[in-house]
Structures are given as C-alpha cells and as structure tokens.
Amino acid sequence: MNKQEQVIKTFREVFDKMAWLNRQRMEECLKPYKPSEIHCIEYIGCHDDPNVTRLAEAFYQTRGAISKMTKKLIQKGVIESYQKAENKKEIYFCLTPQGEAVYEIHEKLHQEFRERDQVVFKQIGKKELNRMLHFLEAYGRHLEGEINKLGVMEKVE
Fold it and tell me: Which pairs with CB-CB distance under 8 Å and at least 24 residues apart come from 88-91?
C-alpha cells in the first residue's frame, strides 16, 4: 500500500472510529431524531434563509429527499417554513424553539467531543494543523470538482 492509499485508508478509519464513538452519546441525547435530521437541524440553525435547494446541495441529496425530511421535521415541530414578502415562490426554513433546543444539545455534544479529543490536538503544532487543513481543503475541492463533472449537483456559494 502506497502513502496515498494509506492516508485515505487511515482517514476513513479515523472518521469511522469517531462516528462510532460519538454515535451512542448522540443517540442517547437526541433520541427521536435520525443523524440526517440532526444535520439538517444544524444546517438550518447555522445558515440564513436555508431552502430545499441549499439543503440538497449541502448534503448531496435530491431536492425530493430533502423535501421529505423537512416535512418530517415540520411534523416533529422542530422547524417551520416561511416565505419572504418579496418572493412568495421560495420556501425557507427556520428552527422553532424546540428545534433550537435540539440544536443546542447537538452543539454541546460536539463541544464535549472536542474537549475529549483535545489531548491529541494539543500534541500537534499549529503549523502541522494548518498543513493538514490545507490538504483536506484541497482534497475536498478536488472531490467537489469531480462531483460537478458528473453534473449530479452544483454547489451554490
């Protein structure tokens, strides 16, 4: 196995371990919600005027799949839809007070996980972190370009 293959394999293993380690606590604290619903709530909580198109692009899913999920989240009472006076055609989403509470729990869990993992990040210098971040951003841009070549989804900035 060459170094490139080793990097990708190790990256996948680390991600899988992190997901496994975090999953139980997330499920315990955010019980009635699926991971995809939590990520949708998070996105809506972090962005201004999110709509089906922006959510679909962010999660590399179809607008139909996002419509289905947002309908479920509306039924669960964690998000609501709204329209702007100047654009009655477009539907946007925002968190309800219940959605804000779910968002806050999720954010606290992420903070808990960051604190747990600080032991590793404290051992790595700022220069090394910047190099890793640079690599991940470059690799992400490359993958984004490959996705766009397929014409599956176009990201809107």
Answer: 90/51, 91/51, 91/52
Among the listed residues 21, 100, 97, 36, the one whose alpha carbon sits nearest the alpha carbon of residue 70: 36
Q: Name the strand (E) or helix (H) holding 60.
A: none
**Cα 126–Cα 128–Cα 129 angle in degrees, nearest 5:** 65
Distance, CA of 29 to CA of 105 (rounded, Å):
7
Query: For residue 63, what are the contacts with CB-CB under 8 A and spacing of at least 6?
Result: 52, 53, 56
Phi then psi for residue 80, to 5 deg, are -140, 155
Interval 27-51: pLDDT, tens: 999 999 999 999 999 999 999 999 9
Q: How many other β-carbons are positioned within 10 Å of the β-carbon of residue 33?
A: 21
| Residue 54 CA to its chain's centroid (Å) | 12
Give one DSSP letter per residue of 108-148, joined into a string: HHHHHHHHHHHHHHTTS-HHHHHHHHHHHHHHHHHHHHHHH
pTM, to two decimals: 0.84
**Torsion on CA atoms 54, 144, 126, 122, rounded to nearest 10:** 70
Secondary structure letter of residue 62 according to DSSP: -
